[in-house]
Design brief:
307 residues; mainly alpha; 13 helices; 75% helix; 0% strand; globular
């Protein structure tokens, strides 16, 4: 187990370097951070030259990347164009997006798995057909459409929740945005769980459990659900990184000042330190989430051994 974890951690190093270098290349080599800093105004040549020297923009790209990596390991993610440190922006944005992601994951686990078990146990029945059609509709409709529709319905017409989220972003105000963020993934979790449950109901080990006369709830929870959840856990684990990075649309609709909002502002203004800094942390979140998912395999299915 220990050797497996060490090997996986070592495998994460080249993935982290490759991903962050690609992002760094796309932002710094394909754009001009100094021109973006001044916008439509022409910068004074002396001032522009000083900024380029301070940001090491005259050095080769590989050297700029090494300097950037050295700085982030000391907690220096640079300064955004508004004069605020990127680390400070992260300190205010990540807690908000983490709360939003937690709400979305809870919806995925509770509703997605429950509907998946229900439809998997009743495959071919009207409830199975109805849920499958509903999930297909959810997957087909873009997030910005469902977001605006639910915001108008529950926030404006019914008044059950605030149409926009306050800067503090407490959990109760994030329920509707969390549902909007989770909807597509929730539909996939439902369909994935339903397929896995339907396959495992025909497995030999389940027929053996039934033949032993075990209680129905024990057969479902301990035998059927435990084995059926392995692909679902894999999907949910990898989805954490996508949810945090892909919350741009949801955060724009509900005026949430989280990671998606800061990334949108950074991309819009070609704010290189903000974009590279936030994406670097998202890459780390994605890698750690995948590692935790792999470690959960053995808990869900003891037949799986780390090699």
């Amino acid at each position: 187990m220990g050797r497996y974890v060490i090997r996986r951690l070592l495998q994460m190093i080249p993935v982290f370097i490759g991903s962050t270098f690609l992002i760094f290349f796309m932002v710094y080599a394909l754009g001009d951070p100094v021109a973006a800093l001044f916008g439509d105004r022409a910068p004074d040549p002396a001032t522009a030259a000083q900024i380029r020297a301070d940001l090491h923009l005259n050095d080769p790209l590989w050297k700029q990347y090494l300097i950037y990596m050295r700085n982030i390991f000391t907690g220096d993610f640079g300064t955004a164009f508004n004069g605020q440190s990127v680390l400070s922006l992260m300190g205010s944005a990540f807690p908000v997006t983490i709360r939003l992601t937690v709400v979305a994951i809870i919806f995925e686990i509770v509703i997605g798995i429950a509907l998946g078990v229900l439809t998997g146990m009743k495959r071919g029945k009207p409830v199975d057909t109805g849920v499958l059609l509903l999930t297909l509709v959810v997957i087909s409709v873009p997030t910005f459409v469902t977001g605006y529709v639910l915001q108008y319905l529950f926030g404006v017409q019914l008044g059950w929740t605030s149409p926009s989220v306050s800067p503090e972003a407490p959990f109760d105000e994030l329920i509707l945005p969390g549902l909007v963020l989770a909807l597509v993934s929730l539909a996939y979790v439902t369909r994935l769980t339903r397929t896995s449950i339907a396959e495992n109901t025909r497995a030999d080990y389940l027929r053996t459990a039934v033949a032993k006369g075990l209680p129905r709830h024990r057969i479902i929870i301990r035998h059927l659900l435990r084995n059926s959840l392995i692909p679902v856990v894999t999907f949910i684990g990898t989805d954490i990184g996508f949810l945090m990075g892909g919350a741009i649309v949801t955060e724009r609709i509900f005026n949430i000042h989280g990671v998606g909002f800061q990334l949108y502002q950074g991309i819009l203004r070609n704010n290189a330190p903000t974009v590279v800094g936030f994406v670097t942390i998202l890459v780390l979140v994605f890698l750690i989430a995948n590692l935790l998912v792999d470690l959960l395999y053995a808990v869900l299915d003891p037949r799986i051994r780390y090699a």
